[in-house]
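Sequence, please.
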């Protein structure tokens, strides 16, 4: 799954990568973006637009907004057929800009990792979005991030990872009405282009939203036995 991600690059990098114009008064770097928060997404109806939407998809037919808490991710293997996601996947795909995401490795305890591109540039996660209206008629736009099986880098950390769309396929993912062109894009991203390292538990709380959470965690202290034996 993908439960946290960051977007901290400069506005001009986002505009160039996604061919959009940002409302710079609204852009705030997010070091620890979490479900339920407003995050930047790139949509395309008549033209490409940068919008802020709530993370956690709420289907248009949902009776309760809280369903979004369970729909922060959509499995790419079933997104085409699952009732909560299939209409959005066919008609309302989006790109979710990021410069890294976080995952927790279970090794007796949970160790958080930051995963990013080796070149440290921003990238696009595959998403879908919906428009939901409450009882008073207020509109809410929400999104979910698609996930897939892991590449070899991520296998050491978790069994799922976000779908990352290569730059040359941004247009196809956003616009194609032929799902036979879209579905092949929902693959694990090449591990040789990615990098991962352990970070501190500060990332566990969304209230910690600053550059300090990117700092690499110090290596665990050697045990007394290791010190004595030199192993």
């Amino acid at each position: 799954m993908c439960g946290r991600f960051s977007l901290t690059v400069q506005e001009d990098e986002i505009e160039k990568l996604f061919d959009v114009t940002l409302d710079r008064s609204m852009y705030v770097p997010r070091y620890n973006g979490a479900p339920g928060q407003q995050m930047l997404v790139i949509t395309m109806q008549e033209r490409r637009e940068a919008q802020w939407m709530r993370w956690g998809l709420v289907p248009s037919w949902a009776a309760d907004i809280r369903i979004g808490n369970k729909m922060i991710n959509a499995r790419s293997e079933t997104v085409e057929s699952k009732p909560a996601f299939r209409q959005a996947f066919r008609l309302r795909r989006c790109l979710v800009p990021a410069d890294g995401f976080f995952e927790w490795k279970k090794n007796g305890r949970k160790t958080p990792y930051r995963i990013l591109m080796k070149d440290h540039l921003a990238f696009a996660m595959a998403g879908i979005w919906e428009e939901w209206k409450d009882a008073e008629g207020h509109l809410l736009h929400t999104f979910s991030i698609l996930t897939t099986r892991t590449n070899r880098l991520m296998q050491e950390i978790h069994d799922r990872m976000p779908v990352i769309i290569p730059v040359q396929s941004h247009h196809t993912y956003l616009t194609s009405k032929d799902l036979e062109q879209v579905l092949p894009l929902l693959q694990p991203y090449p591990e040789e282009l990615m990098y991962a390292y352990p970070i501190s538990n500060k990332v566990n709380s969304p209230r910690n939203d600053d550059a300090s959470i990117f700092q690499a965690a110090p290596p665990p202290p050697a045990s007394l036995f290791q010190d004595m034996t030199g192993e």
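The longest helix spans residues 11-18.
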